[in-house]
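Practice set, problem 2.
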Amino acid sequence: MIAFIDEYRDRFSVEFICTTLNTHRVGGFITSRGYRQSKARGMSTRSVRDAGLVEHIRDVHGRNYGVYGVRKMWHALRRGGIQIGREQTARLMRLAGVSGKGKGRSPITTRKARREDTRPDLVQREFRAPCPNRLWVADITYVRTATGFVYAAFVTDVFSRKIVGWALSDSMRTEALPLQALNQAIVSAKETAGVIHHSDHGSQYVSIVYNERLLDAGISASTGTVGDSYDNALAENVNGSYKNELIHTRTWRDVLEVEIATFEWVNWWNQARLHHTLDYRPPVEVENEYWHKASTSEKIKIRANA
């Protein structure tokens, strides 16, 4: 209320503003005398803290692609050492003029394969894994640019939600796009024996060259029901977040501009983005915790057998 009067006091008198508000509203509004007393006292301790938090919230929101809603903002603030409640976070976000961003519909990029798809469904919609490099999901999406379409392929580890491989190309050919993402994931994992790779029935994932690469790396190929998006829901969720958090926020010139921005987004997704399925932690933190515990457990076994 004080800020409202400050904004309009040069256009209307303080008395006029206070009288008008009190006439048209039911109680609780400030009088001209109360306004002047409040100005004389200065800002309260709460107002000073709120002002600082509002600026901090704007900064956190901006650094996270402007997509955090109340829940993620609340967790981000608490992870940063700020003791704050969820309702207070919501109030301050309203003051800051920021809000979360919901997901749009995922685009369809699947081209039905001409050859028979004999891959079994090894997942059965159970997108869970006991550790990293046990279950990967893969999918392709597209980006519209001023010079034409650009296609993006992602490979995501189900355990940590970490994007372990990705590629961009102006072509959806297997060798130019999904195979590049797969190779990146394989090199990053080092050990891939026993990994399950789950995807849709797109021609790229059914191709001989793609499945030969899986076989060479000891990876088992898996797919779901034809035409059922839920059978690859986690991969499509990654695509939806990519489009919503990055691609739909601006107009793109060409493949190079998209590639640079995608590199930055993937790094943020893996290193900093809070995922509610990970108890509001980033993928790299979850993986590092797992490997630390595994290493500690192995050392204990060695000592016990020594």
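Problem 2, part (b): a different protein.
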Amino acid sequence: MGDFRQLPDLALRTLGGSVVHANDESFAARENLITPGPAVFDPTEFGHRGKVYDGWETRRRREPGHDEAIVRLGAAGIVRGVVVDTAFFTGNYPPEVSVQGLYAGDDVDPATARGWEELVPRSGVAGDSENSFAVESGSLLTHVRLRIHPDGGVARLRVHGEAVPDVRVLDALGTVDVAALENGGMVTDCSNLFYSSPQNLLVPGPARSMGEGWETARRRDDGNDWVEVRLGAECTLAAVVLDTSYFLHNAPGAAVLSGRVGGGPWRELLARTPLRPDTRHRYLLAGTGAGTTPVDAVRLDIHPDGGMARLRVFGTPTPAGREAAGLRWFTALPPAAAASVLVGAGVEAEAAAALAAGRPLTADALPAAARAMVTGRG
């Protein structure tokens, strides 16, 4: 996808994101920054804090400095761009913002942590606007920090990128939803996103309304709509779930699921199957021809149009898929974290630091113990 805004929002609350720190939220709560959907505004609504805004707003600063909020991403990943949305903030938006990123474990307090990386240098923004900034960093991040200079209000912070899962967790889980955003899955293309983003198909948990799924416009031709998903790793499939929950009068009439590997031709995994409204349809593939041939991408064709709540694709990474996912994760880690992984596998600290500094590495360049952990093979 050429526009980074079509990539998943890694900070979204429905993905597990959380605003874990803000130095001030005098007028409006920090949690609003990662609420799904656009901000709303009622010009007549006032509360005990003053005018009610659907966003984060700090007091009027009377001393030098800046205000800041820290978001723990719902899925660790590589950030490709951020959107600082100042919707409805007109006389009270910050004139400048900056954004930093951090990789840290769950036991670290990000408010006092060191090692923040600049993602967006101090830059001017406009009020009542979606201010977009491309990010060039290739580092794996777990947190982002929004600084506003000097104070004011921001409606939403969108952090678009690609999730990169910790392969050690995938190893422990075994068969997983390899289409899930948190496991490295991502929508790469679709025919229509008129009503909502197809990335919604891959977020954790059940949909809570029709608005939390993917819905296309009504087709007036003989074609059909479709979505393509890059899986978190090449895998063999065990089961799929096609979920039309909350789509009552606008669910697709039928669906076909196809898969491929290495950009090759699509082959049918699930033949054209009727779908019912407001239903989770479960199909077993393990042991069938569809479940024995590796795939690294799937395509869901819906006939002719309509809405889907979730797409789940359960599979087990192949040895090649596990190795590729492990190397991608290890390469994206910040140097100190990569060295720590190697030390944990028994590599001497000095050698671990040198290897981390020399990335990207092939699997055979890693010591045997580290190779087994990173790539899944000895």
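Answer key, part (b): Helices lie at 167-173, 289-292, 319-332, 335-344, 349-357, 368-375. The chain has a mean pLDDT of 94.
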